Structure formats: structure tokens, C-alpha cells
Amino acid sequence: MAEKISFPAGRLGLLAVCCAMFLSWGIARSEGAQVLTLEDCLAAAEANHPGIAGANASVASAAGRLASSAVSDRLEISGSAAVTRSGNEMSENLGSSLGLSASVKVYDANRNKYAVDSSRASLSATEEEARNTLFGVRSGVKSAFLTLLLDYEITRQREESVRAFEQHLEQAKGFYEAGTKPWYDVTKAEVDLGNAQMSLAEASADIRDARASLASAMGADPSEEFDITSPGLEVITLPDGTESAAADMALENRTDYRASRLKIDAGILSLRSDARANAPSVSLSGGYSGDGDENDFSHLAMGWNTGLRMTVPIIDGGAYKARVDSARAQVMSLEASHEKLRQDILLEVSRAKTDIIKARERIRVSELTLVNAEENRRMAVGRYETGVGDPLEVTDALVSFTDATLSNKRAHHDLQLAIINLEKAAGVEFARTAGTEDGGNDK
To answer: Is 338 a domain residue?
Structure first.
């Protein structure tokens, strides 16, 4: 029997200790950390995301502009009161006045009506854009949530890989001590274990990055401590007929597409308003006032006045034509952008559908590969345990099994993301999840 050799705490031993410390800090759940479901994350995003708050503020601003444009056709009343003092070297005069005046626009060729209608269409477009912002935030949260789930799954698999290589190292040590295997097998097993531990450390770092990305998607501080659980999110399905109808659904439901159409409507109405800028306008005004020679409002000479004013622009130096030409060009630009958006939406839907097809195929192939890799691992480990196998064969089999498992999990993750992307492209949240409340994450 070969002489028993103690294993030095060299670089591989130091690496193992560092990895263990890194992992215990990185993937362990923080004490008291809040555990969130997907619905919790979506609700938090709707309540806290600055993009949604900004969109809501834009809606309020557009509503203010509408209210401001609507006052031009309304009755305006104002009051005034004044006390004056004047004089020269010979005399000094005191005076007082009190007045009430009112005016209302009678006719302006519907110029202000079209301006108000344009502001109303702009408000509707801003509201649609706010809904689009909300939809985009929800899609971002879903994607970040799924990515964090995938990183948890990868970490679990890396942990299983570490345990498998630890077991292989113990077997190699036992065979070496029994004199049936060379020292090379032990060294090879130590290197394989170190590589597996490093992969696990990287997976742990990915979890922290994914958690920070999810926090950012929710509008929260990326350093905030929380965890997630997923009751059934791993099974996301589409209603029958969704993929074939996705393009029509997108053109009907996309809020940014509706907003684009409303912007064109607003532009056309604004053009109509500008086109009437040189039309005559008529307003009715009246007032009641009093003047006196003393600083005493009780002794005023009261009187009234009323009038009808018509204003007709004659020469404006070309301002009218420039304003109308600019408004017309703006409408043309909005129409071109609308058509470009239509084409982009159809392309987005097509790509999402293609991604779903490719992800399903990757799942099919990865499941076959996983079955084969699992059988090869079982055979390689079994041969080595009986003393006839080769350590390289065991390493290759364990690595291949880990890669096949991760490939299968990534394929399922890609399908989930593709479905979420199809939701975003179609403008409708139609995906369904299945599962039980007790399923979820143990991280």
C-alpha cells in the first residue's frame, strides 16, 4: 500500500475556504428580509416607480393645458378700485374710481374650439402614454423576476455540482489511500472541485446582481434587502390562438400606438385652429363704473357702457402662413412616425413569436440531451466506484450533466421571457401562471 500523504492547505484549499465564505454571505437569505411574490413586486412597482410618477405628472400637466385653453370662450369679469392724487404748485386734486367690467367672445370661426379639441386629444394621448409606461414597468418587473428565479435555479445546480465533485474527491482519496488509484486522481478531483466552487461563487454574485436589477425595476433602492418566492411561475402558458392573433391584438391594444394616433388627431385639430387665425373675431363687452373728485367712494358718479368689437387681421408680416405651414408639416411628421411605429410593432410581434418557437425547440432538444447526460454520468460514476473508470471520464460526465441541466433551465427561462416579450409586443397581459401557493424558492 502506498504511503499515506496528508493534503496540504495550498492554493486549492484556500480557494475552497474563500468560496465557502463568499457563498455563505452571498446567497443566504437575510434575517427578516421581506419575501415577495410576483404580484407583490408588481404592486410595489406601480406604487414606487419614478417612471410611473412622471407619467402621471405629465397627465396632470396636459389636463392643466386643456383647462387653460378652454377659458378663452368663457365669460371674463374683473373689478377695479383706485384712489389717485395729483397736483401742481397751484393746486392739489384727489380722485377715486370704482368699476366692474365683463367680456365674452361671441365669434372666432371656431378657432378656440379646435384648439380646445386639440388639447383634449393631446391629453388622451398623454394618458395612453402613461398606460404604456405602466405596462412597460410591469413587463420589466416580470423579466427581472424571472431572471432572478433562473439565477436561483443555476445556484441550486451549482451546489449540486459541488456536492458531486466533493463526493468524487472523497472517492479518489479513498482509492489512493487503498493503493488502487494514483495521486493524479486526487489532484484532478481537487482541481475539479475548485472549479465547481468558483462557478458556484459566480452564480451567487449573479443572484445579487439580479436582485438589484429587480429592485431597480420596482423603483426601489437596489441595496434593499428582500427575497422572492414563486408559486407556479415556472409554468407560463398562452391562451389558445394568441400567437396567430398577436399582430391584430397589438394594433388594437398597444397604448403607444393609440397615443400616436391621438397625437395625429391633436395635430390636425391644431392645424385647423391655426388656419383660422386670420378670420375675424367678435367679442361683447360691458362695464359699470364710477368716478369722483374726492377720496370717498360714497360720492361717485356712476355710469355704464357696453360694446361689440370685431377684430380683422390685415397684415401680419407672414406669421399666419408660417404658423400654418409649420402645423401642416408637424402633422405629416406625426403620420410618418405612426406608420413607422406600426411597422416596428409588427416586427416586434414577429420576433417574439419566433423566439417562442426557438425556445420550445431548445427545450425539446435540451430535455433529450439531459436524459443522455444523466445516463452518462450514472455510468461514469458507477465505473469509477468499481475501480475501473477513468477520472477524466467522471469529470466530463459531471460537467456535461451540469451543462445539460443548466441548458434545459435556460431554455425554459427563454420561453418565459419570449412569452413576456410577446405580451409587451401585443400590448395585452394574456399569459397565465399555474402552480400552488406552497411552491417557491428556498433561497
So the answer is: yes
Cell of 417: 421571457
Whether residue 198 is found in the same domain as residue 298: no
Residues 209-257 have pLDDT tens digits of 999 999 999 999 888 888 888 764 445 677 778 888 999 999 999 999 9
pLDDT at 84: 79
Vertex 388: Cα angle to 383 and 393 (nearest 5): 60
Whether residues 124 and 216 fall in one domain:
yes
pLDDT in tens, 342-401: 999 999 999 999 999 999 999 999 999 999 999 998 998 888 888 777 888 888 888 999
Tell me if 416 is assigned to some domain.
yes
Reported pTM = 0.79
Domain encompassing residue 149:
41-73+110-278+317-434
Residues 6+ apart with CB under 8 A from 280: 107, 109, 310, 311, 312
| Cell numbers linked to 130 | 402613461
Tell which residue, 164, 154, 227, 232, has the closest CA to residue 192.
164
* Distance (Å, whole) CA 252 – CA 248: 6
Give the side-chain half-sphere CA count within 13 A for 40: 13
What is the distance between the alpha carbons of residues 113 and 275, in angstroms, rounded to a whole number? 13
Nearest-angstrom CA–CA distance, 334 and 121? 14
Residue 101 main-chain phi, psi, to 5 deg: -130, 155
Cα separation of 347 and 353, whole Å?
A: 10
- Closest by CA to 289, choosing from 104, 103, 105, 96, is 96
CATH code where residue 91 lies: 2.20.200.10
Handedness of CA 240, 245, 251, 252 (dihedral sign): negative
Q: Report the Cα–Cα distance between both ends of the chain, in Å, rounded.
A: 45
